[in-house]
Amino acid sequence: MNIRLKGIALASSAVLLGCAQLASADYYVAGSYGLNDQDDSNNSGLFTTAFTTGQVTGVNPPLNLPGASAVGWNTEFDSGDIYTLAFGRDFGQFRLELEYSGTDADVETHRGVSAGGIDLSGIDAGVLIAGNTSDLGVSVAGLVADGRGQIENSTLLFNAYYDFDMGGALTPFVGVGLGQSQVDVTYNPSGVSVINDDDNVYTYQVAGGVTFNVNDNLSIVGTARYRDSGDVTVGSTLLPAQFDIENTQYLFDVGVRYTF
Q: What is the pLDDT of residues 40-60, one digit of tens each?
């Protein structure tokens, strides 16, 4: 065998060895879909500048609320969706992965609107509009009870999992994750735009679940997660105010993992 052929043989052997090592490494891709049980939010805010309420029945003359006065309400969410895509490596009983997920949840209702320590629920909704001088014919409570709106999370997490080897097809696991979310908040009760803003926040999750190993490559995975990004800070399109929106989720999803 001449030198050239020997070189080709050695190079081919190196490529084959590298491929064999890659094949033996437990890399995987995974995806899932499930339920987002979005926790309700106490939307606490402050006026960023002084605010003069509208002039309506019971509020005549209008109220002058100084900047930094408290304003807020509670929001209840319907259940929504979660989907995930992940790439990771299995080291035996320990796994590391990078996960992208999207979640959403529609607003069911808003309630308990207050400003400057005053409960506005029974007052005509025109009180929320600076410069307004007439009743709109609907109370603040009636306006916001209609709901409408959505909270959406686009999240990138670095996860670490520990698998409990039970010696069979079923493998329980626990894990933690840390990353960042872009959170879009839209509140438009009765078609009135109150909040339409987004924020980027740090996010963590704790998770647990079980893996069913169909074969050496394919697994079915069920996961329950608690995910929290703290408060999401957004501005209002209706009021000169900023709000902290609570963003806590209980997530339940089922998916597949393919190991190669």
A: 999 999 999 999 999 999 999
- How many domains does the chain contain in total? 1
Structure tokens at 71: 């304003």
Position 18 in a domain: no
- For residue 251, give the nearest of 157, 165, 167, 170 by alpha carbon: 157
Report H helices in the chain: 3-24, 140-145
* β-bridge mates for residue 70, sequence order: 46
Tokens of 245: 């929106």
Residue 227 in any domain: the answer is yes
The predicted-structure confidence for 163-189, as pLDDT tens digits, reads as follows 999 989 999 999 999 999 999 999 999
Cβ proximity of 182 and 227 under 8 Å: no
Please give the single-letter amino acid code of residue 222.
G
Output the six-digit token pair for 230.
């703290």
Residue 138 lies in a domain: yes
The whole-angstrom separation of Cα 110 and Cα 42 is 10
Residue that the structure tokens 């839209």 belong to: 186
- For residues 128 and 72, give the distance between their C-alpha atoms in angstroms, rounded to a whole number: 12
**pLDDT tens for each residue of 104-143:** 999 999 999 999 999 999 999 999 999 999 999 999 999 9
Range of the domain at 88: 27-259
Output the pTM of the full model. Answer: 0.86
The CATH number covering residue 104 comes to 2.40.160.20
In this structure, the chain runs to a length of 260
Residue 143 inside a domain? The answer is yes
